[in-house]
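ugh ok fine here u go
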Amino acid sequence: MSIHPLAGKPAPYQLLTNIPRLMAAYYTAEPDLSDPTQRVAFGTSGHRGTSTTGSFTEAHIAAVTQAIVEHRTAAGITGPLFLGMDTHALSEAALVTAVEVLAGNGIEMMVQAGLGYTPTPVVSHAILAYNKGRTAGLADGIIITPSHNPPEDGGIKYNPPNGGPADTDVTDVVQQRANEIMADGLKAVKRMPFGRALKLATTHHHDYITPYVQDLANVVDMAAIAGANLKIGVDPLGGAGIAYWEPIATLYKLNLEVVNPVVDPTFRFMTVDKDGKIRMDCSSPYAMAGLIGLKDKFDIAFGNDPDYDRHGIVTPGAGLLNPNHFLAVAIDYLFQHRPHWRPDAAVGKTLVSSSMIDRVAKALGRPLAEVPVGFKWFVEGVGGWLIWFWGRRKRGGFVLAAGWLGVDDG
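structure:
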């Protein structure tokens, strides 16, 4: 594929999404269910689409949310549902729809206080923290995000009580039922007005930020990072973690600077990806051109996609760090510095990951767990503490999971 002339350059006005038109289509477009592209379709992690093509509309979100409610009932899931969204324009509208349907069905839900943004890993953490030690009344979650997709896209994914993305045994059922509900004119959907829903006793305005930030010290040696006095740069890329960096820096006394504090649904602050689209892919050197340009200002810098389930690392010497190098070193280090990890814990990788990981696992004397693409294939192993480290390359970048603090590959 040839590199677009605008790749790595600031997004021009002509590329920006028409947000009013996008939002109008969310509420007015009627999906044509005879067109497969306009039906609910769960991929590796949720349903994605855009309102202007009839693939992500109010009907889709109402139907998917109702189908998730019905799945919860059938599965005996009676705890609270943790609900989060990222910074895409359609995420705001979809959150409103989801809240109305969840409230209409009497579901106890947790929404970020002030209707702020919630990263995907934070929702997973909240589910697992709530469910720890419980055998009944378990929680689950919904994250409204299309991951790193362009500004015009929306997405919705479901996390069952294990905290990770739902496997096909769940998503196939939800997908089929959602399409049935849409085909029947949404007659099965129960909902109530958003204002009323927010005032219900079952709607909790929850602080996602503090518990997650405080728990970081239990899995990362934050004191060592602070003691190293590294000058750290962060480009949130306008994503859902925008409100997390200041509390992290304050609590752990880090020398950390957020270089781009802007949240804008057009993502006009982005540099253009290699195909000429605005895409918040932190693994792309073109999308990360702004942060790479600042590499000599920091000892290390990070960028995240909008729902914060992947990241890119920038260093003065390497620019955007080679993901295979990082994964290999991280695996080697973690298995030698985590004595409490089980002796039979495996190194996990997907089929598209580098064979460097195979060689590192062999040198460590650890078994290798190789599965298809998608973090959902690792959820059972990670949840059972059988797989302690997983990494997957993604367009030259990487996503990671270690132990129970898993992340979704979007």
